[in-house]
Design a protein that fits this description.
Elements (H helix, E strand, L loop, with lengths): L11 H6 L2 E4 L12 H14 L2 E5 L20 H4 E6 H4 L8 E5 L1 H12 L7 H11 L3 H23 L12 E5 L3 E2 L8 H12 L12 E5 L7 H16 L3 E2 L3
Parallel strand pairs: 1-2, 2-3
Antiparallel strand pairs: 3-4, 5-7, 6-8
Helix pairs in contact: 7-9
């Protein structure tokens, strides 16, 4: 269902006990995005069933399939929920543990009360750096452009090597169907076997996110000084993958 929950399939007895619905769009790690119409349905449902909505929007600044869509831009969303943001993804502050929550004032206050009694806040210099970053719209745009460019290059390389690869909606992860074996006789009963083969024989890391089933996970978070370095890395990736002779079950 394009990584969207089927809201109509949730039984009424579940809704009667529901206090909170947690969403995650753009979704990590699948890259799935939610259309505005889905958020509109969630808002209407939250008002009808009387529960709070929290959308984890950590990857929103890396949206590739159009303008980033915030849950809070939907009419009525401010009446039922909040959105949680991270400085890690769109501002390259990974490890700084900086973010913010916005939305319904009472829910934000409740969150603030919990924070006041559970920790002492981040080092003030990192808070000021985050505030300065939020004042510069060029930063997330530059980072989004970089990751989109890298993702497009990776998708092309994988397709040229026989993989089924599509641009994700918004993330720096890319899931592709795992090969079932190689032309030389290797067989892979699960994606973990293909992952191990890629690491040991090709020096390519595609570590699945927990149990990824029959999929491999690539990422474009590699270190490269410039586009020439990116292209060189992609050329090397293509050379290693094309020589492996991967095969897929139809």
């Amino acid at each position: 269902n394009n990584f969207l929950p089927d809201l109509d399939a949730i039984p009424d007895d579940v809704f009667r006990r529901t206090k909170l619905m947690i969403l995650n769009y753009p979704n990590s790690p699948t890259g799935g995005t939610a259309p505005k119409s889905f958020f509109e349905d969630v808002v209407a449902l939250a008002k009808e069933k009387e529960f709070v909505v929290v959308n984890d929007a950590a990857h929103i600044m890396l949206t590739f399939d159009g303008k980033p869509t915030s849950f809070l831009e939907v009419p009525g969303a401010l009446d039922v929920g909040v959105e949680v943001h991270s400085m890690s993804k769109g501002y390259d502050m990974i490890g700084w543990r900086m973010g913010f929550v916005a939305g319904h004032p009472l829910v934000v206050k409740a969150f603030s009360d919990v924070k006041d009694n559970s920790d002492s806040g981040q080092f003030i210099a990192t808070q000021k750096a985050a505030a300065a970053a939020l004042d510069d719209d060029s930063i997330p745009e530059r980072i989004r452009t970089k990751y989109r460019r890298r993702m497009e290059k990776l998708v092309k390389v994988l397709r040229d090597c026989g993989f089924e690869a599509e641009m994700p909606g918004g993330t720096y992860f890319l899931y592709t169907k795992s090969p079932s074996g190689t032309a030389s006789g290797e067989t892979f009963a699960a994606s973990e076997d293909a992952t191990r083969f890629l690491i040991e024989e090709n020096g390519i890391v595609t570590v699945p996110w927990d149990d990824a089933g029959s999929f491999l996970r690539f990422s474009v978070t590699y270190i490269a000084e410039d586009e020439a370095a990116e292209d060189a890395l992609m050329a090397e990736t293509a050379a290693r993958l094309s020589g492996a002779g991967f095969q897929w079950k139809s």
